[in-house]
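Subject: mismatched residue count in predicted assembly?

I count 611 residues in my input, but I want to confirm that the predicted structure covers every chain. Input:
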Amino acid sequence: MTSVFGVPLPAILGQLMLGLVNGSFYALLSLGLAVIFGLLGVVNFAHGAFYMLGAFAAFVGWQKFGLGYWWMLLLGPLIVALLGIAVERLFLRHLYRLDPLYGLLLTFGVAMIAEGVMHAHFGSSGNYYPVPGLLRGGLHLGFMVLPVYRAWVIVASLGVCLITWAVIERTSLGATLRAATENARLVQAFGINVPVLVTCTYGGGVALAALAGVLSAPIIQVSPLMGSSVVIVVFAVVVIGGMGSILGAIVSGLALGVIEGLTKVVYPEASNIVVFVIMALVLVWRPAGLFGRDP
Amino acid sequence: MRAAPAYLGLLLLALAAPALGIYPVFAMKLLCYGMFACAFNLLLGYTNMLSFGHAAFFGASAYVTGWLATSRGWGAIAAIGGGVATAAALGLLIGAIAVRRRGIYFAMITLALSQLVFFVCLEAGFTGGENGLQSIPRGTILGVLDLNGDTTLYYFVLAIFVAVFLLIRRIVHSPYGQVLRAIRENEPRAVSLGYQVNRYKLLAFVLSASLAGLAGSLKALILGFVTLSDVGQANSGQVILMTILGGSGTFLGPLVGAGVVLTLEEYLSERVGAWATVIIGATFVACVMTFRRGLVGELQQRYGRRRALSAAAPPP
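Triage response: the counts match. Full output below for your records.
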């Protein structure tokens, strides 16, 4: 059997695959976090909670309303985005003039509420969600079996990431968004409704998190606490990538997922901490992050 | 010193607490988390550095103290000393990385690094993994004073708390504390005046981490167990809530906040179960939305206007 450094090749490829799947979730989540931070200046601590709510939306849609995966892939992000918009209009809106730390604290409280409600309602154990029929089974690639659903997750997440990137960098809407990020007052003076833009951006970032949640529902146990540890990893990812950069968030999300996966092969005990160790090293070497600008 | 009668009253109340029939373990927990919040306040209130990972110091110190007292048979003082030294070293390490960035980045970095500490505590052998450490002996002070009685331990904890409280007051009112406040108010100006801002911040971070560690060590002895929740993210969030709810940047605020949060938790966990998290989260939101100065801060604002004004005089 082929092996690299004494580790059998299929094991490496398997973990690489898992790493890519996790990396796509990190990419989707850190992308949303970076977009929200860019315009609102808010570090959205509730991002993990919205991711969790996305997965629960899929679960509840299936259990209570008999709505299948594809419906919830569309409806889940929409429903959760509406929740996000409510949070922005009710609370966040009033904090923009203050120290950005208040936005972080507020969204931390919101995350606690969301996790607490789901915990009280569904208990703390994980819930099973089936893989949709169309995406069951595996592709035999000769050297390994590739589960179709995992391949779909990678393709779908990266597709959405690239579309988001293209919208922000290549369309006039994106140009307005970037202009508002640079100087909101000036953009407002041009007759653009910046408050609505801000609300929609928050909703959009939250929708990305919820989409990641729906995508993850069939491969992880859907539980109220699934978001709280992921959000910390995603924070580390955006610190590594540099918060201002959209592409940086996508690339570092994917890369760190892969590194995490490979660490699981080489030294499993360290797989939980490797992202944080890399973050510490990057900070020592380049305090602004790999793709960041401001010091 | 106008606040002196209030402090004296509180001290008398604390001294009389066992006689008044206040459950000593709860009183000790209150002092312990109050100390944790006061240590945290040294960073947030006087330097405006929001650390989202202070549970790392609290928990790591608690683990080390618990392990030293249980497996190594160290006395209370030595075990606490070992815990605090660990917290200080960890504070130096994490602080050196984190003070390179400011504001929300600082918060995110401290959070991520504390999560690293959490996973190390989960994997390391001496912490007992998922089970944590149990039946930690309280031991004796230098082989003389037996701490197993709740009342004795209470006065021991109270003495340490008062010492820490006075130490923090001393730090804040010292020339060093003045520099910290200058950094809080206007960092570029402090830099241009020639202060090595990062060194001042790092020292503040290490001091705060050590005192948080002291609180963690005491917690290990008081309750006799240490679990992963002591080092977890929720504990970091709780100390933030205590501090801002009571009033960051005030001396009594963190203690008041700790009292409110602990009472609330004690009361809620019996009655509403899992909804307690929701209520604590809602308190967080309410606090950030409506009374950002905290309970003590708002009172000071209302009744101590003259002092508040002179303290908040705009820079020339």
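The first strand of chain A starts at residue 3 and ends at 4. Marking this ticket as 'not a bug'.
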